[in-house]
Amino acid sequence: MNKFIITVATVGTIYTNLFSGYELDNSLRDVFKLDFDKNYSFFEHSPQIEYGQEGLTIKSKLKVDGFLRRLEVDEDYREKAQSIKELYCDKCDLVTLHQGIRHLKNLVSLSLENNLLTSLPRAIVALKDLKFLSIAKNKFEKFPDCLLDLQSELEVLSMDPPLFTQMFQELRQFKKKLSTDSIDYKPTSHLPT
Q1: Residue 109 belongs to what H/E stretch?
Q2: Residue 57 belongs to what domain range?
Q3: How many whole angstroms from its chain centre is CA 122?
Q4: Which residues contact 51 (CB under 8 A, 6 or more apart)?
């Protein structure tokens, strides 16, 4: 009878299950190893950050993904990242942006230029201090709807001309819809008592 121990380490906690009475062949062991590698190998690829660090430039897809994924599971790492105000992830060949971006609550500037992004995660609306966002030179086919729901007062949005044109067309359609809806709007010069 083979005994096989599976240990999955997460930040601060180690879960160990002892399987006895089961014969586990090498293929099953490989499945567990692959799953572990796939889900937790980002720790070794996430950049080092220090308390008080205000800016971070990441130049590889693997490190951006590792950084954002680690923010999801590592509370100490996430706490250190709260001081980051500027994040530059240009020319990283990013196809997607992980939802871990939402943990960068104090982010003021985010640059995602020259990637392969076709959309942005809805989690980006959590960036309440965001003032500068650059999504130019990506693969967007349409204006990311989540940007209309940003809670921050964005001052600079850098994007490619087709997206800019599309955004204005959507705003025009929205304005037309408002004017044709049965909204009773009467401006008043004084407050009701």
Answers
A1: strand 109-111
A2: 50-178
A3: 8
A4: 80, 83
Ranges of H-type helices in 41-98: 42-45, 61-73, 75-81
Query: Amino acid identity of 79?
Result: E
Q: How far is CA 41 from the centre of its chain?
A: 18
Tell me the whole-structure pTM to 2 decimals: 0.68
* Cα(137)–Cα(91) distance, integer angstroms: 9
The answer to whether residue 117 is domain-embedded is yes
Please name the amino acid found at residue 87.
Answer: L
Alpha carbon distances (Å) from 112 to 37, 65, 70, 120, 136: 27, 13, 19, 10, 7
Q: Are residues 107 and 153 in the same domain?
A: yes
The answer to whether residues 169 and 130 belong to one domain is yes
Two tokens at 142? Answer: 């349409």
122-161 b/e with 16+ CB inside 10 Å = b? ebbbbbeebbebbbbbbebeebbeebeebebeeeebebee
pLDDT digits (tens, 9 = 90+) for 49-60: 888 899 999 999
- State the burial class of residue 83 (Cβ atoms within 10 Å of its Cβ: 0-12, 13-18, 19+): middle
Q: Which residues of the chain have pLDDT under 70?
A: 1-42, 174-175, 177-193
